[in-house]
Design brief:
328 residues, alpha+beta, Peroxisomal Thiolase, Chain A, domain 1, 2 domains, five-stranded mixed β-sheet, 15 strands, 29% strand, fatty acid metabolism, Thiolase-like, lipid metabolism
Length: 328
């Protein structure tokens, strides 16, 4: 089967920044509370004129430029998102914005695990030789879906987009070493963004559900406990599949949900704090975007260099979680 190489990264975020002090004008909170518990200081917020697809397309353009391929060469666009502009899917808008006329494009929903789930999905098409050039995007605008009067959740989230180009190469150049994915729907109540409808008369005896999606609902403590326990476990499984030892890793690239979660996972895996990739002070939790957004920053600043071994792991609503081990 074909090898897979990561040939470009890109990212984009709205210009508007919301800092902890400004947030404390909206809800009863403080910079001290937020920073000490999460590591967050700023997050970016998309305005009403900014679309998810535009953010994702900008991240995608930058990744294509780094990879040195054009949009028409793309065979596949996978957009990991839980907050599409269009409930029918936003990957097609990204395809249109990029001019990726040959590519098939679809959305993939796995909340904050979306990017890792997307990587595993794209890999199937590349390994089998079905497609050669894939743009994998993670993008979310959770600012549209948080309750801005609920301090337990609204302080945590921000908007952004990130992308990588994955290309089929000869097996000897394979860079995706292994992955491991998990889901547990019994824990859905701990973190969700559900539709709630009320019966409305339709015609005859029939009723239909009229309503809308509510805002994010989360039990922070339960999600924290889940992450600290399950993420090291799934990374260990993915490392085993990859025939790699934790000490052979250069970087730990976790979903940027909370600095304390990232530090606890690193400690469990006996990795040094300097190996933890983090941009959480500046972006907060950008859901499916957080992993490629942080990766792109480390690639562009020359911290992550070709050949570096990276353990990436996403975790979040579903509940879903998963890890991918790859070399940049
Ligand atoms: N400012 C000030 N006080 C606050 C705030 C706030 N923003 N939020 C909560 N508090 C208060 C609470 O009301 C509570 O007060 P009480 O004891 O008087 O009731 C107290 O602070 C402690 O609240 P906890 O929720 O227990 O705080 P905790 O220490 O657990 O930290 C946090 C909360 C940061 C959310 C943490 O639980 C966490 O990070 N959990 C994981 C979240 C996560 O990873 N989510 C992933 C989402 S990914 C996705 O798929 C969308």
């Amino acid at each position: 089967s074909a090898g897979i190489a990561f040939t470009g990264s890109g990212s984009a975020a709205p210009a508007a920044t919301l800092d902890n002090a400004t947030l404390s004008q909206r809800v009863e909170t403080s910079d001290e509370w937020i920073h000490s518990r999460t590591g967050m200081r700023d997050r970016r917020i998309a305005g009403p004129q900014e679309t998810l697809a535009e953010l994702a397309a900008l991240a995608g353009e930058r990744a294509l430029a780094m990879a040195g391929i054009t949009a028409v060469e793309l065979d596949l666009i996978v957009l990991a998102t839980s907050t599409p502009d269009d409930l029918f899917g936003s990957a097609v808008s990204v395809q249109h914005a990029l001019g990726a006329t040959r590519a098939v494009a679809f959305d993939l929903t796995a909340a904050c695990s979306g990017f890792v789930f997307g990587m595993a999905t794209a890999a199937q098409f590349l390994r089998t030789g079905t497609y050669r050039n894939c743009l994998l995007l993670g993008a979310d605008v959770l600012s549209r879906w948080v309750d801005w009067d609920d301090r337990r959740t609204c302080v945590l989230f921000g908007d952004g987009a990130g992308a990588v180009v994955m290309q089929a190469v000869e097996p000897a150049r394979d860079r995706l070493l292994g992955f491991e994915l998990r889901s547990d729907g019994t824990l859905n109540h701990t973190l969700n963004l559900g539709f709630v409808g009320e019966a409305q008369p339709l015609a005859g005896d029939l009723t239909y559900a009229s309503g809308s999606y509510r805002s994010i609902s989360m039990n922070g403590r339960e999600v924290y406990r889940f992450a600290v326990e399950r993420v090291p476990e799934v990374i260990s499984k993915a490392l085993f599949r990859s025939q790699l030892l934790p000490e052979q890793l250069d970087w730990l690239l976790l979903h940027q949900a909370n600095q304390r979660i990232m530090d606890a996972v690193a400690a469990r895996l006996k990795l040094a704090p300097e190996q933890v990739i983090s941009n959480i002070p500046r972006y907060g939790n950008t859901s499916a975007a957080s992993i490629p957004l942080a990766l792109d920053e480390y690639v562009r600043t020359g911290k992550v260099t070709p050949g570096h071994a990276i353990a990436a792991a996403g975790f979040g609503a579903g509940l879903t979680w998963g890890a991918a081990i790859f070399r940049w």
